Structure formats: C-alpha cells, structure tokens
Amino acid sequence: MIGPAVPIPVSQDVLDALTSVEVKSAAGEASGFQLTFTLATRSPLHTLFLLTSAVNIPLVRVLVVVTVNGAPEVLMDGMMTHHQITTDASTGLATLTVSGQDLSVVMNYIDFSGLPYPAMPREARVALVVAKYAMFGIIPLVVPSVMIDVSLPTERIYRHKGKDLAYVQKLAEDVGYVFYVEPGPVPGASIAYWGPEIKVGVPQPALNTNMDAHTNVESLTFSFDKDKKKLPIVMIQNGESKAPIPIPIPDITPFSPPLGLVGPLTLGQHRITETAKLSPLQGILIGLAKAAKFSDSVSASGSLDVLRYGGVLKSRKLVGVRGAGLAYDGLYYVSSVTHKIKRGEYKQDFTLTRNGLVSTLPKVPA
C-alpha cells in the first residue's frame, strides 16, 4: 500500500514491477525498508514516487503486509525518505530503489522547542507528544517508571527541547527505557512503545538445526565473546561533599532475566559518568539498562525460509533453539531480523543474543 499520509493498495502494474522487498527490524534502532522496481518508460511508478517528490509531497507512506498461513503480518508501516534510479543502456530499462524508515521518522520533522508541560511527569509528556500523530494510526504504549516526578507549576515547568523523536528518546534514556514504533498488529496501526526493554514472554516457534526433517533453518552460527561482558559502574556525586560515589550494577533485572546458566567472568568495567548529577535511583535505572547490553556474551546469526519455518520470526521477542548442542540450546532474544522477499521466495536473516552458555530450561517450546 502506498499513498500520501493514507496508503491505498497499489495497482497490479506496480506489483508486477516489484522485484524485491527488504525490511529490517532491530532492537535499539529504527526499522527500515527498501523496495526495488523494474522501471519502464511509461510505468505508473513515475507518478507514485518521482512526481510526488517533484511537487514536494513530503509524506509518501508505504505499508508492507504479507500473508502467511492465512494470517496477515504487517512488516513495515513507514515513510519514503529516498529513491534512486539506475539505468541500463543495453535494455532501456531502469531500476528504481525506494528506501524509507518506520513512522518514527514523522516525529523528526518539526521542532516544538519551548512548548510547556506544567505539572506533567515524563509519562504524560510522552503520551501527549505521541498523541499528535494519531492521524497515522500511532497508538502510545507508555509504561510508568519508578521515577515519576511531578513538579508544581509554581516551582518548575518542563519545556519541550528539540524535535519530538529526540525529545521522547531523551526522556526514555533518563530512566533507562527505550522508545520505538512497531507496525501492527493490524494494517494502518502502529504501537509507539516507551518503557523498559523486555526480554520475557511467550517464545516463538523454535529454530531447529541438525535435526534432519525437523530442521527449519538454512544456516545458524554461534559465537561466544567472553570480553564483551563488563560491569557497569554508575558514578553519583554527593550533593554536600561533591565526592564521587561508585555504584556497581548487576546485569540481572526482572525485565531481563538470565537466559544462560554459565556466563563469562566479568573482567572489565564500564564507568557511566553522565549520571554524576542525577539522583542515585535515576542513575541506577540507567545503569540497569546498560548492564543488560553488556551481558550478552553469546550471539547467533543465521537465515531461514519462512515457508519451511511456518511463520514470520519477529524481532524484540524470545525464540527457542534446538539441535545446537548443550552449550547453545535454549532461549534467545531476537535482536534483529531482516526480511528478504522475491518472487517465489521469502527468507529471513536474524541475529540472536543471550547472556551465557547452557539453557536455563530443560526444554524449549517447539
């Protein structure tokens, strides 16, 4: 589906010209997409993409939906940000490549600096900022933090700084949270999540390797980096003596429980100095968010065929691995997924992470 602000189904001519679709979704960064078309001289794609850019229509929305096992799956709901044409002198045809990002990019257009937020904690400010984009089907999902701070308007009034996306991300960093926009669950709707990075939940169908007829991955490679694990140390400054107070942060939280039994020894440290002027509680929350990232010493990368796997593997969720041996079997966090679609082919490249070797569970769901 393509259109200015509100996407509509494209014509059959456009679908026939489409040669490949690539969508990447990863934790810690915005999702992106790339569409490749074969462009003829009288192709309607000239109107859809090239002319819309020429007449300065800034919001060309692209919605990519696939149907697997009778269920629609929204892979991308975003805006076109760039297009490129490569010509072939021998055939007279051209290749049009359209690139874009998820709907979080629309939050990066207008600077609302100075907008006041009287008596509003961070959670309320995030909800109010995201509410401006309801016309794009963006629904805020805000998880309150323990750092709820409501100042009296007579004492202090918080004001907006910069563009919406950077401001909301800064509010998330202040309490150790993350912010991202995830398409779905239905076409035309997206969830703007502001909260802790959660590594718990119902696992997706297991990835099987070395299991003969039950194998559903094309490749799967594991690596163990013992030097990646570091101990975050939050530096807090005493308000009276101005003396620095180091606070070591563990890497285990209720939202990020251990997925491996045997982890590497912590040989290095990572000092977090930007928390010096913050309260101890606020500094600890930021340290916990960083500790989860420094603990992922085990990673896996591979590819699968969606038809053989039986569904679409999603990022930012758990998945089980079977058949890799005692050290690497078990649950993993899906940190990134790249969808690659061509005619008659739908494959995914993925990256998995966890904190140690040997599964914490005797069995993983099939």
Strand and helix map with partners:
Layout: E1 2-4, H1 12-17, E2 18-26, E3 32-39, H2 45-54, E4 60-68, E5 71-87, E6 94-102, E7 116-117, H3 122-131, E8 138-142, E9 158-159, H4 164-174, E10 178-183, E11 190-195, E12 204-208, E13 219-224, E14 230-237, E15 244-248, E16 260-262, E17 268-272, H5 280-294, E18 298-305, H6 306-309, E19 318-322, E20 330-342, E21 345-354, E22 357-359
Parallel strand pairs: 8-11, 12-19, 14-17
Antiparallel strand pairs: 1-4, 2-3, 2-20, 3-6, 4-5, 5-6, 7-9, 10-11, 13-18, 14-15, 16-22, 18-21, 19-20, 20-21
Helix pairs in contact: 3-4
Give an overview of the whole structure.
α3 (122-131) runs antiparallel to α4. Strands 1, 2, 3, 4, 5, 6, 12, 13, 18, 19, 20 and 21 form a 12-stranded mixed β-sheet that branches. The chain has a 3-stranded mixed β-sheet with strand order 8-11-10. A 3-stranded mixed β-sheet has the order 15-14-17, covered by helices on one side. A hairpin with a 6-residue loop joins β10 (178-183) and β11 (190-195). It has 4 domains: 2-102, Alpha-Beta Plaits (2-Layer Sandwich), CATH 3.30.70; 110-195, 3-Layer(bab) Sandwich (Phage tail protein beta-alpha-beta fold); 204-225 and 297-359, Phage tail proteins - horseshoe like beta roll fold, CATH 2.30.300.10; 230-294. It has helices spanning 12-17, 45-54, 122-131, 164-174, 280-294, 306-309; strands at residues 2-4, 18-26, 32-39, 60-68, 71-87, 94-102, 116-117, 138-142, 158-159, 178-183, 190-195, 204-208, 219-224, 230-237, 244-248, 260-262, 268-272, 298-305, 318-322, 330-342, 345-354, 357-359. With 366 residues, the chain is an alpha+beta fold.
